[in-house]
């Protein structure tokens, strides 16, 4: 992973941290290098990471599973309080299937925390890859994902939109959904603080953890 890749990863993690609560049973889909899991392990009840490139392992309250969600993993219904997917949804061919599986895995009131880039980011990432400033991992897997379909896809799966805001100069977007029996909520606008930086202590730890 190149330095700029790590910086962009850390920015996404900072956006997600305030929505991971003490005592949560966390599932991180697309955990990759497990940075998020390592960061929050001291304050959550348990942290599971799933990634198709991972190797199965367990240490402390962290467990890693190789696979995809949905997929061949036998995960129990309502076994998580929070699910994170940071820069993952744009790589998934069937976002609806992912949303429905998240609804099955979460307890009522559980949260899905997602970051998704705006479509124009693909061109920027392609340029940065050519300049060898980033690795450009799995860029070819982007499925022309329309960020505006995120809310309807999750609402149809039984979620309500609790938070939406832009960051990285408006090029990336954070969504937080809550699982409810009937999804009906007024639209939530982008947070005008486009690059809203968390001031929580947990958010500050990421710099120390990653060396950014």
Write the layout of secondary structure elements.
Blueprint: H1 3-16, E1 25-29, H2 35-40, E2 46-51, E3 57-59, E4 62-66, E5 80-86, H3 95-105, E6 106-117, H4 121-130, H5 150-156, E7 159-167, E8 172-179, H6 201-210
Helix pairs in contact: 1-6, 3-5
Number of domains: 1
Number of strands: 8
Q: How far apart are the termini?
A: 13 Å
**Overall SS class:** alpha/beta
The low-pLDDT segments are: 138-142, 183-187, 192-212
Strands in their spatial order, largest beta sheet: 3-4-2-1-5-6-8-7
Helical proportion? 25-40%
Strand content: 25-35%
Using the CA coordinates, give the radius of gyration.
16 Å
CATH C-level category: Alpha Beta
CATH H-level superfamily: Vaccinia Virus protein VP39
Principal-axis shape equals: globular
Short description:
By secondary structure, the protein is of the alpha/beta class. It is built from 6 helices and 8 strands; from the N terminus they run H-E-H-E-E-E-E-H-E-H-H-E-E-H. It has one domain (3-207): Vaccinia Virus protein VP39 (Rossmann fold, 3-Layer(aba) Sandwich).
């Amino acid at each position: 992973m190149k330095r700029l890749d790590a910086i962009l990863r850390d920015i996404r993690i900072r956006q997600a941290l305030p929505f991971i609560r003490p005592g949560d049973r966390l599932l991180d889909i697309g955990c990759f290098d497990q940075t998020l899991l390592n960061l929050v392990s001291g304050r959550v009840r348990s942290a599971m990471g799933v990634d198709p490139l991972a190797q199965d392992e367990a240490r402390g309250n962290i467990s890693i599973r190789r696979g995809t969600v949905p997929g061949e993993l036998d995960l129990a219904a309502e076994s998580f309080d929070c699910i994170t997917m940071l820069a993952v949804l744009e790589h998934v061919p069937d976002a609806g299937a992912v949303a429905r599986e998240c609804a099955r895995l979460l307890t009522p009131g559980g949260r899905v925390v997602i970051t998704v880039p705006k479509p124009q980011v693909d061109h920027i990432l392609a340029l940065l890859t050519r300049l060898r400033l980033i690795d450009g991992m799995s860029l070819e897997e982007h499925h022309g994902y329309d960020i505006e379909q995120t809310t309807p896809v999750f609402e149809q799966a039984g979620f309500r939109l609790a938070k939406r805001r832009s960051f990285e100069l408006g090029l990336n977007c954070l969504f937080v959904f809550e699982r409810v029996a009937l999804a009906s909520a007024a639209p939530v606008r982008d947070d005008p603080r486009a690059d809203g930086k968390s001031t929580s202590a947990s958010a500050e730890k990421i710099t120390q953890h990653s060396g950014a």
